Amino acid sequence: MKKIALLFVALITLSFTKIDNDKVRFRATIENRHSDTLVIRSRSFNKIVVADKEGNFSDEFSVEEGFYQLFDGAEYAKLYLKNGYDLRMSLNAEKFDESIIFEGDGANENNFLAEMALDDEKFDYAGMLQASETEFPQLLQKRKEFTLNKFEGKDLETNFVNAYKKDFEQSMAGLQAYYNESLKVRKLNGQKSPTFNYENYKGGNTSLDDFKGKYVYVDVWATWCGPCRAEIPALKKLEEHYHGKKEIVFVSISIDQAKDHDKWKKFVKDKELGGVQLFADKDWNSDFVKGYQINGIPRFIIIGPKGEIVNADAPRPSAEDIYQTIDTLLK
Q: Prior bond to 298 cis, omega within 30?
């Protein structure tokens, strides 16, 4: 009778811990966490998981099988979820990618994603995009072979492998397209620069000819552009560093629409923007913008003392090599 009672208790326990196949169970333990919430989302899904009193995260929810993005308040990680998974994640938010570990159902697939994310972070894509037309296809092929070889010896679900390979091929196609566009821009180097003659925030108009004999570091931006605004602190530091250097001038060209002209003036004043602040005449359709084939901002450009294009896609103010780039020119 005692054995029967113990068996009955065991069965009850199993029934309470059994994972619903119509849901995924997700749990996380995070050291040095950035927030008391985790956001799991895709284009058609958004789930907020709140930490309990002990700081642990746990929830169950239904999903469509596929890739999701996890956000901890500061950084992102890629997840693969499907109903029936009982997935446990642990990490140290101060190290994030380097510390993510998954256990439970779906662990193999998600540990693979974490491994590839770390490799992606270390890979020199910037250097790859600077390769010659002959070198780039070879480097791209090597990158493809390296990634596909990562599947060997891994116990991964077929659906996951197929989905990952599809996403990877799309990203490689995107990288090829981006390289093609950047190559067009690079071929502008050495040519005579398109000119400008735009309204100056301080009054009147300012043209490129006004800066003959100087290097011109141009920032093409807009008040509505988040990445542009993110570069402002670094740009201010850069301008301050070279303050008093007569060989270089910093010019910011806003491509805000005409209806936002007053917004631009207020932004320049409120943010105390330095350098030469100009307002392009036809936003994206301005001759200077079209001449540099700009289809995304911010774009930084270096023009030489004779009006030649030194770098049609120069390093951003926040880039590690920007000071070295400018110092080399001013020697």
A: yes
Contact 100, 91 (CB under 8 A): yes
27-57 pLDDT, tens digit each: 999 999 999 999 999 999 999 999 999 899 9
**Which position has the token pair 């002209």?**
261
Task: HSE, CB side, 13 Å, CA atoms: give it for residue 263.
Answer: 10
Task: List domains and CATH numbers for the chain.
Answer: 19-122 (2.60.40), 125-186 (no CATH), 197-330 (3.40.30.10)
Catalytic site residue from 89, 228, 280, 303? 228
Q: Catalytic: 225?
A: yes
42 is catalytic: no
Of the candidates 129, 139, 225, 234, the residue annotated as catalytic is: 225
Q: Would you say 104 and 86 are in contact if contact means Cβ atoms under 8 Å apart?
A: yes
**What radius of gyration, in Å, describes the C-alpha atoms of the chain?**
27
Select from 287, 270, 268 the least CA-distant residue to 278: 268
User: In this predicted model, what pLDDT tens digit does every residue of 75-111 receive, in sequence order?
Assistant: 999 999 999 999 999 999 999 989 999 999 999 999 9
Calculate mean pLDDT across residues 177-203: 95
pTM: 0.72
Of the candidates 201, 228, 220, the residue with the CA atom closest to the CA atom of residue 288: 220
